[in-house]
Amino acid sequence: MSDDTIRLATVGRMLRRRWRLLAVLTLVGALVGYGVSVVFPPRYTATASVLLPGQWEQRELLTQVDIATSSVVVDRTAAALGWSGVDGEELRKQVAASAADGNIIKISGAADTPERAQRLSDVLARQFVTFAARISGGSTDSDTEAEALRQQVVQTNRRISELSKAADPGRSVESVQARTSLERLRTTLEKAMEKLDQADPANNKADLVVMGPAARPVGQTPPTRLHFIAAGAVLFFLLAVIGHLTVARANRRLRTGPEIAAALGSALLGTVDVPEEANVGRSPGRGPLVRMSRLLGTDTRWDVPPPQRSGDDADRSIRYRRVRARLRDQLPPNSGLLVLVPDEDPVADRAAGQLVAEATKEPDGAAPALRVVKIAVGRPTVPDREAESGALVVLGAGNWTAEDLSGIADACADSSHDLVGVVVAGTVRGRPARTSTAAPGDDSTPAPLPVSGTGSTGGTKKPARASGSTTGAAK
């Protein structure tokens, strides 16, 4: 597991190097979303509004919402619609109700066409109003009974008045008591009628009213087909990005020279630079899978940091000469050295070739003779020891794990080769070769420098200076 923090630069590098693959996966996600939208047919939702006049508490509004979607109302709606194959149980999944501001109940119905959705909402609203009026006592029979009771009370009051007038107008005790009892009866009846009027819901709350037919929906209810396509594309894109970052986080390849040397159990002799090439690291072959991999950009690693800029060939050769110098110090003269290079590491292969090329510039016997041998990291096999004094491992940075390098070390021990060191090669961006002056350490003869007192400038003398020098000499 890599301990490196995933930064925005890493994400940006992944997007630049894997944009083709991400684009293809995003397209695949959009196609998957389209396929899912086919499974789920389009839905249209229409809404009807029912007004509840009068004063209503919040809990009473919630009760009306529950009544609107109750099984009784939905079953009556299904019977009124008469749709084949649609019963109350299935219809209950397609209706909904909610309480809005202003004592309004919003009743919604969903269907596969706008016409069916509109009709479902209208029929459900009417069935709700009819059922709510029946259970609240607001029917015509109840109104008739209440009106008849009021007429009887009025007649009773009139009769009480007549009895009060017909009583003995004298001041006898019996007449006074009779009139007093009649007035008490009148007062009791009036209070009873007041309470009846207050308890009658028809006086405080009028009947529920449907506020017109539901509007026919003009668009589909989310999620639409476009939503499914967009969700599939975004989902696949995010999964691809997270997958790349997870793989990079779980990468156990060693990148630094000390880590590689510690895994091999040897010393780090140095790091060398290899100029970047366009096709380095790409999968060989010409099959359709290889071409597809190259087209998508998956034939090269994306988590490798961009190569740093370096000097020209002369500057890079200094690092190789330093490695050769360290080998001369460790090995006896006229000795041989086995150079082990993984067969799937083109950067290390080029570095080993450059190391051998630098050896040809040195006098015979000045440094150990190098013999390059390619090995398979998965199951490495090192040739038996002959005239070599040891083995040198050349590896590319960030390509191998500690287990891979441990296998190389075991193969060297099995073949009786002592590991004299490891050289780590890294890719760099080159600079154009120098043309004006010779590079340091080049085999070409440098231009002569001016010598004091001779008048030499390293080039053709000017005529004036030549004339002055001749005159001075004559004097």
Name the descriptors:
transmembrane helix; membrane; four-stranded antiparallel β-sheet; 4 domains; TATA-Binding Protein; disordered C terminus; six-stranded parallel β-sheet; LPS_length_determ_N; Bact_polysacc_biosynth/exp; 50% helix; alpha/beta; transmembrane; 475 residues
Low-confidence stretches: 436-475
H/E element sequence: HHEHHHEEHHHHEHHEHEHEHEEHEH
State the helicity in percent bands: 40-55%
- Helix/strand structural class: alpha/beta
Q: Describe the global form.
A: rod-shaped
Spatial separation of the terminal alpha carbons: 85 Å
Average pLDDT value?
A: 79
* Individual helix count: 16
- List the domain count as a whole number: 4
**How much strand?**
5-15%
Reported for the largest beta sheet, the result is: 6 strands, parallel
Give the radius of gyration: 50 Å
**How many strand segments?**
10
GO cellular component, one term: plasma membrane
Protein name: Membrane-bound polysaccharide biosynthesis protein
InterPro entries: Bact_polysacc_biosynth/exp, LPS_length_determ_N
Membrane topology: Multi-pass membrane protein
